């Protein structure tokens, strides 16, 4: 999808990586983050964008967007009720003909760390379907990034090498692993 001229909600905008990506391609961007430091920095860095300081599980999002993304965000919500509220809020923010983009493992693995909890694909499917969205794709994105690497943690100091290794692992089929991160695409029908 070409983001030019589209309304984008960048949830968990953090350092502004995806805000910058979308702005550079002509999108109208609203960033949402739970930390005031991120919002303050991003407002100064990207005056063409709008920013909202909010917890996505509590945010009442009145505007509708063509693209709503939550990359590496939802598994940080460890409380199931708050997670469900966040998914429902994101789904409600998707305009007719729009898409929701979410990354997670979408598997039944136990907690990988105290600060995150992955949910299975069917938990997402239930909430998204009830909100009128249809999952149209699930794509592996990486195998090693965002993982404890043990003896190989030195790779974190070589992000280009880590990314290249991930690309090779994906080509070899390791993206189907329950521990591989994936991108879920869910769409709302145009009216």
What's the SSE blueprint?
Blueprint: E1 7-11, H1 17-24, E2 28-33, H2 36-45, E3 50-53, E4 65-70, H3 80-92, E5 94-104, H4 121-130, E6 133-142, H5 159-171, E7 181-188
Parallel strand pairs: 1-2, 1-4, 2-3, 4-5
Antiparallel strand pairs: 5-7, 6-7
Can you give a write-up of this model?
Keywords: Methyltransferase, Transferase. The chain contains 5 helices and 7 strands; from the N terminus they run E-H-E-H-E-E-H-E-H-E-H-E. The protein is an alpha/beta fold and 191 residues long. The protein has a domain of 99 residues: Vaccinia Virus protein VP39 (Rossmann fold, 3-Layer(aba) Sandwich), CATH 3.40.50.150. A 7-stranded mixed sheet has the order 3-2-1-4-5-7-6, with helices on both faces. It is globular and about 45 Å long.
Helix content range of the residues, please?
25-40%
Briefly, what CATH class of the domain at 55-143 and 179-188? Alpha Beta
Low-confidence stretches: none
Question: What is the succession of H and E elements?
Answer: EHEHEEHEHEHE
Helix/strand structural class:
alpha/beta
Radius of gyration: 17 Å
Q: Biggest sheet, in brief?
A: 7 strands, mixed
InterPro entries: SAM-dependent_MTases_sf (IPR029063)
Keywords: Methyltransferase, Transferase
Pfam family, one: Methyltransf_23
Protein name: Class I SAM-dependent methyltransferase
């Amino acid at each position: 999808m070409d983001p030019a001229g589209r309304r984008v909600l960048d949830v968990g905008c953090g350092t502004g990586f995806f805000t910058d990506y979308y702005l550079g391609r002509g999108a109208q961007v609203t960033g949402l983050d739970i930390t005031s430091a991120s919002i303050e920095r991003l407002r100064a860095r990207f005056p063409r964008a709008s920013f909202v300081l909010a917890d996505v599980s509590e945010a009442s999002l009145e505007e509708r967007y063509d693209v709503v993304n939550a990359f590496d965000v939802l598994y940080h919500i460890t409380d199931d009720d708050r997670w469900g509220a966040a998914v429902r809020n994101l789904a409600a923010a998707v305009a007719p003909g729009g898409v929701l983009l979410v990354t997670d493992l979408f598997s039944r693995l136990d907690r990988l760390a105290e600060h995150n909890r992955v949910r299975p694909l069917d938990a997402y499917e239930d909430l998204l379907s009830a909100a009128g969205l249809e999952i149209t794709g699930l794509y592996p994105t990486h195998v090693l990034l965002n993982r404890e690497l043990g003896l190989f943690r030195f790779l974190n100091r070589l992000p280009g090498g880590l990314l290249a290794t991930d690309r090779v692992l994906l080509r070899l089929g390791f993206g189907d692993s329950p521990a591989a991160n994936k991108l879920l695409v869910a769409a709302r029908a145009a009216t």
